[in-house]
Predict the structure.
Amino acid sequence: MSKTFTREEVARHASENDLWVIIDTDVYDLSNFVDLHPGGAFPILELAGKDATTDFYGLHRQEVLVKYKRYKIGSIAGEKAQFSIPQPGELSKVPYAESSAFSGFKSPYYKESHFQFRTEVRKIMAELAEEFRELDQTDGKPSDELMQKLGETGLLACNVGPGPHLKGINIPAGVKPEEFDYFHEMIVHEEFARVVPRGVDDGVIGGFVIAIPTVLNFAKPHIREKHARDILLGKKRICLAITEPYTGSDVSRIRTTAKLSADGSHYIVNGVKKWITSGRYAQFFSTAVRTDKGLSMLLIERGEGVETKAIRTSYSPSAGTAYVTFDNVKVPVENLLGVENQGFKVVLSNFNHERLVMLMGASAAGRLAVEECLKWANQRKVFGKRLIDQPVIRNKLANMISQVEAFHNWLENLTFQMNHMNYAEQSEKLAGPIALAKYQATRMLHNVSDDACQIFGGRGITKTGMGRYVEMMQRTYKFSAILGGSEEIMADLGVRQAMKHFPKEARL
Ligand code: HEM
């Protein structure tokens, strides 16, 4: 049992060398920390021996108390704590912090297994949270151990939807592969977005999510057998190499060539690729090339003639964004993905899923901004009042909440359609709505991020501390508006797809 003290006892420890403070009902001995304190000694000295709760929560995130729990020596006798530190896996009780089904509202979409699954995934992610955050601060590479841990927990494989690739995978909460659906997948992306800074997330799963389906669905069976499992278990890494300096969304204009050797045993690949997410870390490049009569996809293994160098983007070096050069790279013909000259089919095949993944992450990112702002507005005091007591702040929050909720409801509908349509129907009916939803998602992020930053003020543009999430969001949300089909192309595609189904007989 932890020690208890009276407030009078704490008050007796009020000098620089013997310095205790009370935060909520816990007592901290900061004598050895005062000179190490990142905020300097002065603010703590002023509160030596006193209750520092209000000042503490005005300046620190609660996670600081978890990180420095070694300084806690006990609690105040007979007093009940006002604030609780969430346990791993626990859902937030802040209004709108969880989607409605997870905050006590009725929903037609989720079964018991989804609730258990979220709890387990949240626990796993909580264990890794500090490591992810540090990667964003240090611009580090997601380590092999981290990738393997994600692989072992089954979470990497759960990032790419339901399907035969889940056979033999240890899915959290004991979900059976045949039970796993797109709502389970949504939960995975939401939980990643809650914990993993956006750029780091791209370094960890961004490249993988868009590339592994090309192997699972189009590689020759023996090539799939040889590599897919290692990639799903985080032992090897893969990226998708399509865009080039000359062409982003306009895939038909790529210039990288693959010429068949005279004996027909391999292709010789030459060309360059740009903005390749996690390319710096990848052993495999699922690559769009120009063959004699069209576009083809090849699985290229890192080796002689393959070079990657870092592109300095604004979100995070941890994303491993690369400029890739292929210089006379020999690729065995068996590494062809799909059919020669029909690579477009491979490229297009995963667009709906890739965008859906981005929507799921975007939804959770917007929601987390709401939670952060509600907490901050409730605890931050200015001009003698809490921020939430200012109508202008409540108006911004209303704007944020309504956009997040509206978007999430659409997303749940689309996810439901994914669960109940076969691949052909998904391709036929969902490309337009998913494109429009992506357009809507990134407009939502733009607005939410802007409001959140104004609510957090200087902290919203500071990488560490109270506003670190909002700063990260400001710095990264644009990536979702550009990658996976730019906002403008998404909007246009959505309307063009709708017009394909416009009835000829309809007139105003
Ligand atoms: C358990 C006790 C405490 C711990 C572990 C702690 C730890 C920290 C840490 C890690 C930071 C850096 C946060 C960042 O990244 O921006 C910080 C900043 C700061 N702390 Fe503390 N602190 C404690 C108590 C206090 C108390 C009692 C005060 C009194 C007011 C205080 C005042 C400050 C100030 C003024 C800053 C700078 C905040 C800013 O840059 O906006 N701290 N503290």
